[in-house]
Structures are given as structure tokens and as C-alpha cells.
DNA sequence: CTTTTTTGCTAAAACTTTTAATACCTACAC
DNA sequence: GTGTAGGTATTAAAAGTTTTAGCAAAAAAG
């Protein structure tokens, strides 16, 4: 009963050609010198019968889908979820839609997902690359597809990216702990060769050097289940007895806090890379390095849109500053010695 | 240089017709009695040259996109993000992809998004309906499109849905507080006519009746910014002096906890509807009504897939039990009188 | 040796839109 | 009366696949 209306139906109804209708619908009436009277008549009729062009057929013909593929590490991580949310809003206002998938940071899944998006002919790609996807990314670049990486980049690959200043962020966090009087400042990070992790490590080490401290580093296996990590982390605490801990990601911080709570360990100084809505609710509130997520989302969309418009050819590599948000969890040492 | 390979190229290369190649690629070789030798030859060649069918053309012809549209209230809310994640994984394993958007619970945005998905010819819909979208949902049903609602449903509309037992969950939470010795138990909820909110209110009221207590209800405006809500909520505390609070959603709980912290109010008994990873890290840990998100995701995909397979015609309305997870935040009254 | 059935494959239509090329008309100049 | 220009709309091809209907040859049946 609810037969789908085609452009040919419109044309037949009004006794004009399909082409004419198409031109008018695509705003080329002026350019193609179609009379104003006809233009209005067609538009009115389209409105009346509620005709909507078949987007699939349109995409097939034009090669444009108005869809952006978002390949993200994990949508249930608040940092990524919030960025995704902002990207979505901005893309939406420009007439683009988002199709997303989570990679779990697994190379094969990432590669598969990117291939999938290619099959679907998405117009552009926003990607948090996992390790080992260099060739796949390179192939996107070779095919001249609009692309921007974020959160991390691939060294040696001349591609657009937007990241935060991880070295600086980690330096600030560590230096802050040092200034608060902590001496045995540990870094908890992942086994990972990704740039954001390397950079956070570098920033930490630089601060350790500046303040002439000893490094204490605990590396965690991403794939391990939480329980294992909790035990593993606890053993590290016992062994190295740090008086402050800098967690390289928010989920490491959360796991760490769970371990501290579970073993009822007296809380050392704590800073997390990446903020979390609830960190300001903890007792004590948790100091964090906060990435500028609005700015990141803005730049990502900007860079991508510029490519989609065919405007810009040069490679954009954007590094945005992070901000250290000092809360109670990193002020223990001072207050305990001064009060 | 990297000319896209077409099915016609494959056919030409091997000196067979396009039809034959298509049959083989779609697993109809047997059915169409194509010789095994040829089948193998074609498959081998396709493999060799790395031919991939154009999904758009395929979709245009078949009317199937293998995409599921997920219309969700807010992807940055952990409850929804986690469900989205699980749905994504399950859909992926069945060969379906997810395209999602957040509605912010705004009717016009919701309607627009659903229309968008229709334009894109998604194969099925998973939707958290906002208020005032009855007609839009009805029109999906009229068009016989695979559809399942979740988290809430639309009363009087015979459509598939998966929700948790909100009445029971709210009753249990409230009853638990009563059993712990709290007497002035408040409900903090939204101005909302959505079923999940109504049901939680009902559950609360039923428990209030069972235990012969007085109700104390604070309604909050969803659109307000957090600061306003915090002040508003604080005024309610001053005014009504509840000794325990049941928050009807996790973000209300978070806002409420912020208010309590900000005004340094002594913590009353607290229960939140919807759990949160970090609730077990709080001091005190927060009691919560936990929805069975795995089960919800499973059922959603099941119900949708059954429709997509054309198997089932009857309407499925599934209500899953929630679980009360008792933590420290709701045990104050007892322990303070007994210890 | 003819008719029927089976086997193995193909031509052409269908999906819906965009766009390059072109046709037709009118008016005007030469 | 022919050529030219400009305005208005159309024809037909193209995008890349799936699928319907059907054909020729070989095998089986009579």
C-alpha cells in the first residue's frame, strides 16, 4: 500500500523529464536555466507527495555517502565516549553521520573494521590506530582517502593527526607530585609501543631527571583480566613501596584504585592521565591530566572536513595542550608534613 | 593506478558471464548447478585479484544493508555505552554493523534520526524512544520494519521491547532502605512521563506503602545545567531532611553526590538505579540497582535478528529482573545503631 | 530417431540516481 | 532566408551489482 515513490513518478506526474526533477532537487535549477515556474511546481509536488530520494542510489552514482567512519579503541571508555559524542554532534551539523566500531586495540579487528568501512564507501575516516596497522593506514593514504588519526599517531607516517601533548602532560603530572614532596613516584603504564604511551613514559622520565629522583615503573598487560591486574599491581606496591603513583590511563587508574581499596592500602599520592566525571567525587578527589576533548573533537572534524571539501592538501599534525587538574589525591605529602 | 575491479572484469578474465560469477559469489553455485571446476576457478581468481563487490550496488539491488540503526539516549552515559558495546559485538558476529546516534532524549532530534536511518535503509532499528515519538514509531511498525525498543516502551503500542523490571527494582531498593532502618526515604527523579521513570516511581511508592512510610519526592528538570540541579537538590535536602535517598538514574545519583560533597552534607543512605563501574570505589561504596546489561543486549539482538530472518511475527515484550547490589552507602542506619 | 528432462550457463532487466551531450525552440542579426 | 545565440528541457549512458527468465547442448526416455 505504501509504495515507495521514485523520482520517475514525480516526473511522470508533472509531465517533465527525470533529469529536470533531479536538477531542481539538487539546487541546480538556476545553473541549468530551468524556469522558475517549473522549479516551484516541482518543489511543491515533491513536498506534497513526500518524495525522498533513495540515498543508496544517490551514493552509488555520486560515490559520496555522507558518512564518516569512526574507528575507536573502546566506546565504553568515557574518554572515547565523550569524544565520540562531540564528534557526532559536530558532524551532524555539517550533514555527516557517524558509523563507529570499537577495536579493543586489536590489530586484526582494526584492520577488518577499516576494510569494512572501505567496503561501505565512507567518505572519511577518524581512527585511533592500534599497533601493527601501519600498512592499512598507508593504503588509505595511497588511495587519497580523507583521514585523521587521533589520541596517537604512527611515527614515520605522513598523515593528519590530532593528539594531546602527552610528554608535557606526563611531565606536569610527575613534576607536580615531586613538588608536593613525594619522592618514590611510580609510573603505571601498559606494555605498548603506541605513541601516547611512549610519550607519557618520556614525560615521566624527564620529570624524574629534572627532580633527580629514581624511576619506578610498573607495566601492565592490556589483555589481562582485571583480577589478575589487581593482584599484579598489588605485588608491585609491596615490592617497590612507592609513595605516589602516576597512572598512564584512566582505566589503569581505576583498576589501581580498586586494588588499593581491595587491599586496604593507605592511599599514596595519585594522578591519572585522562580525567573522569567521578574523579571529583572520590574521597579524596583524584588529580588528573585532563585532555581538551572539545578542542580535540573540533580539530578532528575541521581537519577531516577540509579534506572532504578538497580544500587542503598539506598534512596537518596538531598537538593540543593538556591541563593538570589538581585535586586532593596529590596533596597528601605536603599537608601531612605542614599540618 | 589502483583501478577498482568490477564483477564484469572477473567475468571477462575468465570468459564466463557476470551472472555465473555472481551466483558463485553468493553461494548459489550448487543451487544453480554450476560445475565444481568452474566454481573453484572463479573463487581462486577472485581471491587472486582481490575483488570485493561494491556493497552500495549490492544494497541498492537487494534492499539489504546489513546495518542496524541504534538510536540511543546518550552514548556518553556509561549504561548506554556499555549496552552499545555489547550490541556492537553481538551484531558484528552476525555480520551486521551498527550505526548510532544520540538523541539527548529530545523528540525532534529522535524523529530526525529515525528518518535518517530510514533514508539510509538500515535493516533494523534498536531505539530508546524519547517522549512524543509515538507516531514515528508507529510508522516504522506500519512499514513492517524490524524494530525493538529498550530501556522504556510506549504504552499502548504493540511493539517489541526489552526493559528491566523497573517497578521491582525500585521496590527492592526502597524496601532495602526501609529494612536498614531509614524512615525518611526520598526519591529523586525526573519530570518525565517515560515508562521507566513512571515504573520506578511506582516501585518506590509501593514500598513506601508496604512499610507505612511517608513519601518524599524531588523531581528534577532534565534540561537544567548541573549547577542549577545541584542547588535545587540541596534546597530539597534542607527543606525535607531525608535520611536516605533513592536516585532514579545513575546521572541523578552522580549529580546528587556532587551536591552532597559540595555542601559537605553528612551522607544519608544512598541507592542509585543503574550501577556504575566506580560506585564500588567510592567512600562509602554506593549501593545500586544493577540492570542485566548482557542479558538486555542478548535479547535485543535476538529479537531483532529473528525479525530480520523473517522468522517471527508475534510481538516480544521482554522484562528482565534487575539486581540490588548492596554496598556500604545504604547500611549507615543499622550499623550506627547496632555498633 | 524423436521427445522430454536435466545440466550448465547467459542475456537482460532491475534497483535509482546523476550528468554529459544534445535537441528544440525563439528571437535576432545579417 | 540563413546563421547564430541563448534559453529550456530531454535523451541516453553510467554507476555496480543481483536476479528472473530462458536457451543450447547433452543425457535420458520412449
From TrEMBL, chains A, B:
InterPro entries: HTH_LacI, LacI/GalR-like_sensor, Lambda_DNA-bd_dom_sf, Peripla_BP_I
Listed Pfam families: LacI, Peripla_BP_3
GO MF annotation list: DNA-binding transcription factor activity; transcription cis-regulatory region binding
Keywords for the protein's UniProt record, in alphabetical order: DNA-binding, Transcription, Transcription regulation
Transmembrane residue ranges: none
Domain HTH lacI-type: 7-62
Superkingdom of source: Bacteria
UniProt cross-references to PROSITE patterns, sorted A to Z: HTH_LACI_2
Protein name: Transcriptional regulator, LacI family
Protein source organism: Parapedobacter luteus
Higher taxonomy: Bacteria, Pseudomonadati, Bacteroidota, Sphingobacteriia, Sphingobacteriales
Amino acid at each position: 500500500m505504501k509504495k515507495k515513490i521514485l523520482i520517475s513518478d514525480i516526473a511522470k506526474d508533472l509531465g517533465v523529464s527525470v533529469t529536470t526533477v533531479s536538477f531542481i532537487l539538487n539546487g541546480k535549477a538556476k545553473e541549468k536555466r530551468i524556469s522558475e515556474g517549473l522549479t516551484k511546481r516541482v518543489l511543491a509536488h515533491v513536498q506534497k507527495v513526500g518524495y525522498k530520494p533513495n540515498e543508496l542510489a544517490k551514493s552509488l552514482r555520486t560515490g559520496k555517502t555522507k558518512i564518516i567512519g569512526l574507528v575507536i579503541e573502546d566506546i565504553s571508555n568515557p574518554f572515547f565516549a565523550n569524544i565520540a559524542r562531540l564528534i557526532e554532534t559536530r558532524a551532524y551539523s555539517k550533514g555527516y553521520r557517524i558509523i563507529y566500531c570499537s577495536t579493543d586495540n586489536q590489530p586484526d579487528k582494526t584492520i577488518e573494521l577499516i576494510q569494512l568501512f572501505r567496503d561501505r564507501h565512507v567518505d572519511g575516516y577518524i581512527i585511533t590506530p592500534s599497533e601493527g596497522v601501519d600498512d592499512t593506514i598507508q593504503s588509505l593514504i595511497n588511495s587519497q582517502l580523507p583521514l585523521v588519526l587521533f589520541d596517537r599517531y604512527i611515527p614515520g607516517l605522513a598523515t593528519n593527526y590530532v593528539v594531546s601533548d602527552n610528554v608535557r602532560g606526563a611531565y606536569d603530572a610527575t613534576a607536580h607530585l615531586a613538588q608536593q614532596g613525594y619522592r618514590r613516584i611510580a609510573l603505571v603504564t601498559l606494555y605498548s609501543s603506541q605513541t601516547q604511551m611512549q610519550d607519557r613514559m618520556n614525560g615521566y622520565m624527564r620529570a624524574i631527571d629534572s627532580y633527580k629522583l629514581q624511576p619506578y615503573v610498573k607495566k601492565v598487560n592490556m589483555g589481562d583480566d582485571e583480577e589478575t591486574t589487581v593482584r599484579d599491581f598489588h605485588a608491585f606496591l609491596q615490592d617497590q613501596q612507592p609513595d605516589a603513583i602516576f597512572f598512564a590511563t584512566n582505566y589503569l587508574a581505576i583498576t589501581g584504585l580498586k586494588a588499593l581499596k581491595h587491599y586496604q592500602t593507605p592511599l599514596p599520592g595519585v594522578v591519572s592521565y585522562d580525567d573522569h566525571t567521578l574523579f571529583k567525587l572520590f574521597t579524596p578527589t583524584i588529580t588528573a591530566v585532563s585532555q581538551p576533548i572539545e578542542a580535540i573533537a573540533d580539530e578532528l572534524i575541521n581537519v577531516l572536513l577540509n579534506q572532504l571539501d578538497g580544500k587542503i592538501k598539506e598534512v596537518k599534525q596538531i598537538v593540543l595542550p593538556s591541563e593538570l587538574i589538581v585535586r586532593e589525591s596529590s596533596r597528601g605529602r605536603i599537608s601531612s608534613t605542614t599540618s
